[in-house]
Amino acid sequence: MKKKLRVGVLFGGRSGEHEVSLLSAASILKAIDRKKYEVVPIGISKAGQWLRGGEAQRLLEGGYADGASPGLGDGEASLEEIEFAAAAAVLRSGEELHIPPPAHGHVPQTIDLSASAEMAQPSSPLAGLLDVVFPVLHGTFGEDGTIQGLFELADVAYVGSGVLGSAAAMDKDAMKRLFAAAGLPQTPHITLLRAAWRTDPKKCTKAIEKALQYPLFVKPANLGSSVGISKVHARTELPAAMDLAASFDRKLVVEQGVGGPGAKPRELEVAVLDNDVPEASVIGEIVPNREFYDYESKYADSPENPSVPIIPANLTKAEEKAIREMALAAFKACDCAGLARVDFLMEPPSKSKSKKKAKPRIFVNEINTMPGFTSISMYPKLWAASGLPYKKLIDRLIDLAVERQREKQQTRFSKI
Fold first, then answer.
1. Contact indicator for 232, 241 with CB cutoff of 8 Å
2. Quick one: how far is CA 10 from the chain centroid?
3. At 34, phi and psi to the nearest 5?
4. Closest Cα partner for 165 from 22, 367, 16?
5. Whole-angstrom Cα distance, residue 90 to residue 32?
6. How far apart are CA 323 and CA 340, in angstroms?
7. 207-231, pLDDT tens digit by residue?
8. In 279-362, which residue ranges form alpha helices assigned H by DSSP?
9. For residues 128-166, b (16+ Cβ closer than 10 Å) or e, as one string?
10. What value, to the nearest 5°, has the Cα angle with vertex 200 and ends 194 and 203?
């Protein structure tokens, strides 16, 4: 009988996207094929503690005082739902992580794992007891190369981009420089430091207004899920937007809006999959229920007024070809691996009455190396529409992690 791969599903984390990570992990833990994988849920609290499901046994035994299991509704729960609820309880328990040993082999009954240099050793519990790590971590300390560096030092296979790809794609300033080097079209933008803004906001305002035209988008360079992003229609709105972005990062990226005042560009997305020979999915479009696709549009608004995904997007053949090619070029420019979602902005249709209308311009907006991964998130939906269902997508990502680890083992790190 073929040995099951032991997959650690890592979720939570210290970033502003902690809750988004929980949603993604919930879907993965529910859908992952238990016949192929032995799954180990691992939580990281907002304080950065690596945690175990200390309440898991109580959950299974129905030992909660109020008779309710956290994260579960009424009715009989499936094994997957129980295991996710146990993993989510991790984040409330505040207990240090113990990765249970596999059923086979002679190893201690529990392994203490602390967030220290011990984890970075190839002989550590992280590497010794897990075949693959699926880091379902969004944003800072999870998608920015930091956790990937830990996995590299531990010599354990993991899903997604490596240190460089993760860091480059996470930092919007560095990302835009790589896109420019690859010749990809981008909206005009400027990068400022938080220290410069706080020292001399008037000078920064002049620099912004000299380079760009309103409306503007102000973003922290290192964050995702539209956290900390503001649309600025006029100078009076700029200070609050800059202060908000500055609360999340030391680098602030200011972009010129596409299409000018009053325009609402089309927001297009492409899912990319594989390592050295990436493939692009069909193209999707998001019609946000707000002025732009912000955090509330993605996660917080009521179901009565949702943002609307359109898959596939209504585009010409030439537009589809150009966008998919740019998505692959962006993936390669940042040295990504495994998965990424590439987002585009397309000028709205021209209102000119001229018979010969200019073709709308398409701009690469950003790349996301660990996009939202719920079963209704755009990345899985784009692949489902391309013929790869959610459960098979998880299989493919784990296979790619193993493939990349084997390829890395062909590399010599010393002369001897």
1. yes
2. 13
3. -70, -15
4. 367
5. 20
6. 15
7. 999 999 999 999 999 876 567 899 9
8. 295, 317-333
9. bbbbbbbbbbbbbebbbbbbbebbebbbbbbbbbbbebb
10. 105
Q: pLDDT of 67-108, one tens digit each?
A: 333 343 344 445 444 444 544 444 444 444 455 555 555 443
Cβ atoms 284, 320 nearer than 8 A: no
Strands (E), 148-259: 157-158, 189-193, 216-220, 230-232, 251-256
Q: Does residue 72 contact residue 84 with C-beta atoms inside 8 Å?
A: no
Contact 216, 257 (CB under 8 A): yes
> What letters, b where the CB count within 10 A reaches 16 and e where it falls short, cover 104-113?
eeeeeeebeb
Tokens of 81: 């739902």
Task: Report yes or no: 93 and 79 within 8 Å, Cβ to Cβ.
Answer: no
Q: Which of 182, 190, 195 is nearest to 218 (CA)?
A: 190
CB 278 within 8 A of CB 252: no
Q: Which two tokens stand for residue 221?
A: 């360079």
Identify the DSSP state of 332.
H
- Amino acid residing at 263: A
- Return the DSSP state at 49: -
Question: 170: helix, coil or strand?
Answer: helix
The residues with which 176 forms a beta bridge, in sequence order, are: none
Separation of first and last alpha carbons in the chain: 38
How many angstroms from the chain centroid is the CA of residue 88? 19
> Which string of DSSP letters, residue by residue, matches 210-275?
HH--SSEEEEESB--TTTT-EEE-SGGGHHHHHHHHHTT-SEEEEEEPTTSTT---EEEEEEEEES
The length of the chain, given as a count of residues: 416
